[in-house]
Amino acid sequence: MKIIFAGTPDFAATALQALIDSQHEIIAVYTQPDRKAGRGQKLTASPVKNLALEHGLPVYQPENFKSSTEQGLAAQAELKALNADVMVVAAYGLILPQAVLDMPKYGCLNIHASILPRWRGAAPIQRAILAGDAESGVTIMQMAKGLDTGDMLLIERCEISENDNATALHDKLAVLGAKAICKVLENEQSLQDYQAKRQVQDESLTNYAEKIAKQEARIDWTQSAEQIHRHIRAFNPVPVAFFDILSDVEKAQHNPAQQSQNTAVRVWQAEIFHAENHHEKAVGTIVALSKQGVVVQCGEQSLILLTQLQWAGGKPLDAGQIFQSQKLQLGQVLA
Questions:
Q1: Fewest CB atoms within 10 Å of the CB: 5, 219, 231, 247?
Q2: Nearest-CA neighbor of 19 among 111, 123, 95?
């Protein structure tokens, strides 16, 4: 079949590679326009674009497909002229109007990183971890107008382990999604069969996975260690869980008054800590400090062991390096 692929990040690139390796013909690859990134703010191509160029595939990067703009209408006409059998969409990041969804012979299929309708929206991986879900998966969906509302063609599931962070779960689902779309698109008859057996989503089971806000990553020590552990895992690698400590600042010249400033410390890794004998302290208090990590009092009489931290301007430190740095003290209260 003649396939148009639309996607932007690594998650999508994994699926694109699988389709490149299949017997199908990738006639066009759509991805978001190059964006400024990094300290130098240089224009950077997406992982999907880089992969497509490596394989000599034609790349299209429209700003939008809006029918209300000349640019959008031109992009629609360009896509229609490709005369594709099907369009595969994975984390593309642009809204496709109904006119575009109807252009390919078999419509547009989306690879969504959750078991629909459990998590619709922008951040299903992080929200699943935060909620303590025991499993996640991917849904191959027939795209329709609305946010992740289309009929489901195939669901593939995987376990969320107690140590999976967003990176680990992302990688699991990327591979699972690539296999799932290839299963649906094994051949034209296979696609027709899946579409004939499509299932409507149960609206009563819908949850919306809102986009992650940076401030959400702040740790709330009044929560249980289990909740905080999920919090740290969900926000690794972006935006990274953090807490504040008060650090002394050098006295200003000719000013005897001492100033202080809040310093954010990122938490990359942690474990739930179990202690046989423990006298509960105020939440956020460091109750133990060793080469194994930093034990902090959490809500519900629970403890968490912080094993990898990063101070502003520095590199992540493991448990032994944290202990040697003496940046934290026993009894200190973290904000």
A1: 247
A2: 111
